[in-house]
């Protein structure tokens, strides 16, 4: 919402300058985005008198002028045909920058004649495209005074961001009311005197909203004015509109635009001679269309409210008029419309039609329903003043939609909600200044507050509290510490949230770099990773690249790795701890810790040669993470299964019982190719929500440490077993042979080839034994060894290698 | 009998002349071995009369001790020389780099770090962390938060919608973390003192907007909570977060459908010299939106606004990360560029806490 200080002063009697007003507006919640003073850019350009103008001795089209600037006389070479002795113009001195052209003026010699400065055209002043001659100022323009002052351009322009609840502040009058309430001056309320009509309005208006409990257009006020003369608007009106960036069109149209911003009251003018018969206000119909004042054809349906005459739709109510019935220089009889449209109806229609207009902006936020008559009277007065004519009586169809609301208000609520303290008399004064009707209660009894028709947003006591507090000023809110709940605060995170945080630290500790990636990915990628369901696709994505909620974090990490490779980083280790989406329901969102390694295990090094990353690197990541998160790793089982985006024979799932806690593997080359990422790629995903939750413990005391003085010992076993038997199966069987004595079993060698029968492999296990009660005798060791061999043989068919 | 002092001189000289462990051992055997010269002399003691045996025995013992001493001393010298030789042979080029340290290569994303910082600070004020789903329904994201259907405030949110279900309903990506207010208030009785960090989505992209970003929501519901507490809480937070003695805050009236009164909050800062400093200067920087929870929101959650009241606020986590640590372009937060992550990221062990310092 833009307006100028001069415009504001037509509503507000104030001595405050632009800075003070800007501060006050922001303090009131009308946030000032900028205050621009056009005079500042034009400060160098002043009124000058052309004392003498004679032809340039060396150029036909140039003149040499002597210019009196009020302080000195200067010679200026000028090419304008209208430059002549005795005129007053705008002088730009040497050293200034011409705003319209950006030219930096310097003393110069033009075809042998000295020139100091310049006499300027409108285009050079940045005011218009006019460049046929220099600006001519009135004879009484005072010499040496800034041109901006003479031209009335020294009027600071405010640009204020109006929040959606404050439609009343979409007019200068409403803004003035707020400022007056805050003590910045006195409101000059302007209630236009009704204009007596000379004849009944001859155009009939019918409101047809059958079956609508709250008709989309409950009130339509019309008036015909005969015999107007529509031409360009006078300077003051043109300047008002231009100052806020609107283009003047013709007086009748300019008047409606002016009142839109002056009173937040949109109006419309029809050329009455172009109307055919009476008007019907109704819902649009499928198949109807209108060529709007924007020159575009708008297809209509039942969403829009339309105004139709005998020939069809002539205007989209509350949004935009039609071209065929618009006013132009030939307009003699004008029909004025001042209506009320339901905000929701206009919002829906505006959205559907995609039309942005000042009228829609106001109606969808809720124009003051009581302003229809005042608006038409204000417009009538301006039309009669500027265009002449004879008005009809006003014709009111329908009625005002709402009664005034009355609210209960307990003044003590101001302090209890905001901690701002104000005297009851001050509160009453603020509310009255804002237009509220105040009936104070006796003692502690609530006050009865009548809400003015223009404050649709004020619906309850809390709104009234805000009105008082914002006018009093939020600076009055004291800073008070929150009362502590406990002396030492509770733990802020729960077990799951702690796990997420710990997962990040654990993975970063293993050398992976944390990324954060968008939750949406290309649909094609989602499909490759087992997702892509319709219910997880966006209706209005930013782009096709960001249109589907990801089923896995790996495609995001793959793409990030690819971008780094493209930047010259070949060895990449990335992770993310974030959501993946199985369904669109709250329980379909999984918290996943995922990592991706690409390239080699490290830089080339003088001691240790790096190797390409593989499934075991990411298995190590996943297991380390699970261990760090408190999962009993001894009970985990790895099986050669997993999602199809992994290499079919280099992937695995890590399970605890039936619960799949993690999946890992080398990325399927076909999938990598589809994502356009190359090189060795291995990734893992740990499903954090599936991890077992530690039971709440009554004590943090750990079980007593059992130390044995007896030496542990280890024994090695080499087995021959069928190639497709998992090494882990052997290790697990060995471990199970004596759970008391055997504390650790590890696979330390795998061998196939010479000496091993075809179809078999040799698996070497190292078993650690920790005696508890007495040193093991050779016989006991032999017994346990036999047990191990038997257990492994039974479970896997392996035989001890001879 | 040979003069013992001569023998001593001879043996000690032989010990000192030994040039290696083997030579030294030969000397030892020659003197003290089974057939060594001293051993032989000892054996001869039996033939002497008791007095002579006592006297000669004592002298022989002294001699044996001195030879043993000399042997030990010589051994130490030889061992030291041998060690010197070994150490010389073990010389390395100590300027070579060790293998890379994973801990120094890993990084925590600045937003994750800031979430931990924010959690530490609000945790100290008794807040706990709540979370909710990214895919929301209209009720939790808008209606329950007092956005009437069709209200222009909804359009300010540039909402991403998911494709409609068969029954015509459609989900959306939450445009703010506020729906978790609703979920929490519906799930259990007050008092509530929560922060809600998480991912949020709006259909927007430029240097300071990305289609996904992070917010942290705050919610305090109790019997006597007012805007003074809101101001005190936020000022304490901001001073702790920006690690300055004190910050000054400015509350400006504003509008959010789910709070009444509503305020936008600016903090005083100094932007001279291309960096932002808080707690000084004459500029104001908008940092968050806040207000008292709207009575309609409380009612929508089954709470009586006459009994319960409180405040809520919402703040951009990426934004405060930018303000504190300086990355200029929001889009880079989600690009995964290793150079950016190494520069703006944090070490695994930099876990923020108030006792030992929020950041290094």
How would you explain this protein's 3D organization?
The complex is a heterodimer of chains A (802) and B (360). Chain A is of the alpha+beta class. The N and C termini of chain A lie far apart (93 Å). Helix content of chain A is 25%, strand content 25%. In chain A, β31 (572-581) and β32 (589-598) form a beta hairpin. In chain A, the strands form eleven sheets. Chain A has a seven-stranded mixed sheet with strand order 28-31-32-36-35-34-33, sandwiched between helices. A five-stranded antiparallel sheet of chain A has the order 6-5-4-7-10. In chain A, α5 (172-181) runs antiparallel to α12 (424-433), α7 packs antiparallel against α10 and α14 packs across α17. With 360 residues, chain B is of the alpha+beta class. In chain B, a hairpin with a 6-residue loop joins β7 and β8. In chain B, α1 (4-17) packs antiparallel against α2 (21-32) and α2 packs antiparallel against α4 (50-89). The longest helix of chain B has 40 residues, at 50-89. Classes of the chains: A alpha+beta (802), B alpha+beta (360). The interface between A and B is large, with 105 and 98 residues.
**How many β-strand runs of chain A?**
40
- Gyration radius of chain B (Cα, Å) is 41 Å
**Which of globular, elongated, flat, extended, rod-shaped describes the shape of chain B?**
rod-shaped
CATH architecture classification of the largest domain in chain B: 2-Layer Sandwich
Q: What's the overall average pLDDT of chain A, rounded?
A: 93
- Domain module count of chain B: 2
State the order of secondary-structure elements of chain B, H for helix, E for strand: HHHHHHEEHHEHEEHEEEEHEHH
Q: Give the largest chain-chain interface (CB within 8 Å).
A: A-B, 105 and 98 residues
Strand residue content of chain B:
15-25%
Radius of gyration of chain A: 42 Å
Q: Sheet bearing the most strands of chain A, described?
A: 7 strands, mixed
Q: Which stretches of chain A of 5+ consecutive residues score pLDDT under 50? A: none
Sheet with most strands of chain B: 8 strands, mixed
What is the helix fraction of residues of chain A, given as a range?
A: 25-40%
Within CATH, the superfamily of the largest domain in chain B carries the name Bira Bifunctional Protein, Domain 2
Count every beta strand of chain B, where a strand is a DSSP E run of 2 or more residues.
Answer: 10
From the 3D structure, determine the CATH topology of the largest domain in chain B: BirA Bifunctional Protein, domain 2
Measured between the Cα atoms of the first and last residue of chain A, the distance is 93 Å
